[in-house]
Automatic annotation (TrEMBL):
<feature type="domain" description="Enoyl reductase (ER)">
    <location>
        <begin position="15"/>
        <end position="334"/>
    </location>
</feature>
<dbReference type="InterPro" id="IPR052711">
    <property type="entry name" value="Zinc_ADH-like"/>
</dbReference>
<dbReference type="GO" id="GO:0030554">
    <property type="term" value="F:adenyl nucleotide binding"/>
</dbReference>
<dbReference type="InterPro" id="IPR011032">
    <property type="entry name" value="GroES-like_sf"/>
</dbReference>
<dbReference type="InterPro" id="IPR013149">
    <property type="entry name" value="ADH-like_C"/>
</dbReference>
<dbReference type="InterPro" id="IPR020843">
    <property type="entry name" value="ER"/>
</dbReference>
<dbReference type="GO" id="GO:0044281">
    <property type="term" value="P:small molecule metabolic process"/>
</dbReference>
<dbReference type="InterPro" id="IPR036291">
    <property type="entry name" value="NAD(P)-bd_dom_sf"/>
</dbReference>
<dbReference type="InterPro" id="IPR013154">
    <property type="entry name" value="ADH-like_N"/>
</dbReference>
<dbReference type="Pfam" id="PF00107">
    <property type="entry name" value="ADH_zinc_N"/>
</dbReference>
<protein>
    <submittedName>
        <fullName>Alcohol dehydrogenase</fullName>
    </submittedName>
</protein>
<dbReference type="GO" id="GO:0016616">
    <property type="term" value="F:oxidoreductase activity, acting on the CH-OH group of donors, NAD or NADP as acceptor"/>
</dbReference>
<dbReference type="GO" id="GO:0043168">
    <property type="term" value="F:anion binding"/>
</dbReference>
<dbReference type="Pfam" id="PF08240">
    <property type="entry name" value="ADH_N"/>
</dbReference>
Length: 337
């Protein structure tokens, strides 16, 4: 079969190499998936780029956690799945249900076990969520990391309610899913972006207000003037956390997800204390049970993930570079034809 491997981390993704591998066979409790599409997250860039940093990766590895395809074979003892089932691939294949533990997230797809950027891939059958009929492979391939992270932060951990306000930083995969989920639950959304085009698109998706963080560097106070945010999707890290804490309303929830604007640094904890904020890291993305609940909620309104651009299988390196350039809004997909 055709596949990609990250053989070494390099600045221009030259270490992402197309290769031939033996087609895997499912063992007991496993399912073989014919992958039809997969998508990239910032994590995938960090694994493949020596100028970024991602702990715990094991190279060489078939990259990408997010994929979708068809079950084409099952191993002994599998009765939950059958050939022909349409499934999404898991981020944490050992986290099926229950509370997060270190053991359940010790293995991560595309990090220290082989991922979805291949024609065929084997996963524990219990880890694979069934896709609803309405979702395309491209849409299904966008969910495993960004979609489930946004869902877990707002719904599973944050107990999102109608009438609350969500602040989404930027318009990448997690933030765009947060916008869509929040609107589905009847919440209002504020989006930050320096791009007028992206802010306009966010408003088309239902954002009640948008802010240009370059024109308004104290955007945390600007959000407070709009009434404050009950939930902040914090994907920037140390570079944005101070403003996020300022934006949150009393009793609000700041969901720490990414470090796009930098790591380290000092942040004054006084706003978190003074406003009794919940500041919570979203680690391990989510379980298959959470994934199932997310898909059921999406199916009610046939919620379509926002796919910015689709690349061919032979254009995988170009897809990495496109995501790094930061011009996308929503998800970037690679077809596996």
């Amino acid at each position: 079969m055709d596949a990609y491997e990250v053989r070494e981390a390099t600045p221009e993704y030259e270490g992402v190499v197309r290769t031939e591998r033996e087609r895997p066979e499912p063992g007991p409790g496993e399912a073989l998936v014919r992958v039809r599409a997969c998508s990239l997250n910032y994590r995938d860039l960090a694994i493949a780029n020596s100028e970024l940093a991602y702990p715990g990766a094991r190279l060489p590895v078939v990259p990408l956690s997010d994929g979708a395809g068809d079950v084409v074979g099952v191993g002994e003892g599998v009765d939950r799945l059958s050939e022909g089932d349409r499934v999404a691939t898991p981020f944490a294949p050992d986290w099926v249900d229950g509370r997060l533990t270190r053991e359940k997230t010790a293995r991560t797809t595309g990090g220290n076990v082989d991922g979805a950027l291949a024609e065929y891939a084997v996963f524990p059958a219990e880890s694979l969520p069934l896709l609803p009929e309405y979702l395309s492979y491209e849409g299904g391939a966008s969910l495993s990391c960004a979609g489930l992270t946004a869902w877990r932060a707002l719904v599973e951990d944050g107990d999102l309610r109608a009438g609350e306000t969500v602040l989404a930083l930027g318009t990448g995969g997690v933030s765009t899913f947060a916008l869509q989920f929040a609107r589905t639950f009847g919440a209002e959304v504020i989006v930050t972006s320096s791009s007028a085009e992206k802010r306009e698109r966010a408003e088309e998706l239902g954002a009640a207000a948008t802010l240009d963080y370059e024109e308004t560097p104290e955007w945390g106070e600007a959000v407070r003037e709009l009434g404050g945010a009950d939930h902040v999707i914090e994907v920037g890290g140390a570079g944005t956390l101070e403003q996020s804490l300022a934006a949150a309303t009393v009793g609000g929830h700041v969901h720490l997800i990414g470090v796009l604007a930098g790591q380290g640094g000092e942040v004054d904890p006084a706003p978190a204390l003074g406003k009794a904020l919940t500041v919570e890291g979203v680690l391990g993305v989510g379980s298959r049970a959470m994934f199932d609940r997310m898909l059921r909620a999406m199916a009610v309104e046939e919620l379509e993930p926002v796919v910015d651009r689709t690349f061919g299988f032979d254009e995988a390196r170009e897809a990495y570079r496109y995501v790094e350039a930061g011009e996308h809004q929503g998800k970037v997909v690679v077809r596996v034809d």
